[in-house]
Known about the structure:
The protein has 168 residues and is of the alpha+beta class. The chain has six helices and six strands, in the order ββαββαββαααα.
Amino acid sequence: xxQRVLVLNASYEPLQLISVRRAVxxxxxxxxxxxxxxxxxxxxxxxxxxxxxxxxxxxxxxxPRKLKLPxxxxxxxxxxxxxxxxxxxxxxxxxxxxxxVLPRSQGGMTTWDNVVTACRDCNHRKGGRTPEQAHxxxxxxxxxxxxxxxxxxxxxERHDVWRKYAFG
Length: 168
């Protein structure tokens, strides 16, 4: 029973990882509902349960949105799933760069809303220009990730069932 269970808010936003025992208690108290389960069963004298992998709280838990995450190279790569935001390739972390959408030479800052993951070729081709000036399109608009999902990101990526809840 050493495995963990992903807890989703009522809005399906990842909140935390808890023990199977705690998840079963929440299910029995009807504070949560089962979203995904393993094929294994938990058996007691008069009842059996599927082993939960993902549960969802019945009531919405308000999360403070004021939490600021520091913008880092590692964080940007994780947010963008190690994918170049110009050409869509995934050449591997060693071949990726952090690109400023509005270049620093034009007053751009290193903030979540201004940096994206780029492969070396695209970053070199864009140079010190904006994507519009370089006639390059961004695959997605850069934004600050939600705190809870981002804090759990490394954990969520390790389990196939949880991966789909990592990015909303």
